[in-house]
Description:
Blueprint: E1 7-10, H1 23-32, H2 40-56, H3 65-81, H4 90-115, E2 120-125, H5 131-137, E3 144-149, H6 150-153, H7 160-170, E4 177-181, H8 184-194, E5 197-201, E6 217-219
Parallel strand pairs: 1-2, 1-4, 2-3, 4-5, 5-6
Helix pairs in contact: 2-3, 3-4
Amino acid sequence: MTARIQAILFDFGGTLDHDGIDWFDRFYRDIKKYDAALTRETFTDHSNWVSRHVGTLADTAGLNLADMVARLYKHLHARMSNGDPCAWDHAVLAQAFVAEAQTYLRRNLLLLQKLRQRYRIGVISNNWGNAAGWCEEYGYDTLCECMVDSTVVGAAKPDARIFQAALEQLQLPAEACAYVGDKFEADVIGAVNVGMKPIWMVGTEDKVCPDDSLPTRRLRQLTELETMTL
C-alpha cells in the first residue's frame, strides 16, 4: 500500500518564485534580448563561474533576495563585458527580475497557506546559504517546518544527503513526502532516488523529459497543487 502523502517540500528558485524557470534561465532570457549573439553555452560558462565566485564571498549568505539578484547580475555584467561597454544595464534587469519573482512569491504564499491545512510544508533549495532568510523575508517561514539549504548542509541536489536532512527534521519517511521542483536532474531524480514522490514544475516551457519511465506528476502552474490528489 502506498503511504499517504503527509508533507509537500518545495524547491525555491524557479518553483516558488516562478512557474518552472530557474534563475539563470531567466537571466539568459533577459540578457539575450539585448545581446542576440549570446549563445547558451557561452552564458552557461559565465553563469557557472559567477555562481561559484559569489558563493565564496563572505557576506553572500546574509543577502536578501533582491540584493542577491543584484549581485549576480552585477558580476555577470562585469564578466561578460570584459571592460567594454555592454548593451544591458545590470541594475535595470535585476529590478525587473525581482519584481517578477515577488509576484509569484505573493501568489504562492497564499497557495501554501491553503496547502498547510492538509500537508506539512518545507523547502529544499540549492542555494548560497540564503534559503531560510528568503523564506522569512517573504513570510514562508511561518508555514515551513524545514528550510534546507545546500550550502548549509554541504550537499546539493540531487545528492541524497540534502533530502535526508529535510526528512530528519520532519521525522517522516521519504514515501510520505512529495517534492516539487523545476529541474529534472536535481529535483525529480533527486526525489526519486530517496523515495519521495516527484512533482515536476514544467511551467509553460517546452521541457523534454529525459526519462519517461519515472512516475512523475507535472505542473504548469504551482497553483494546480490546490486541486491535485497526491
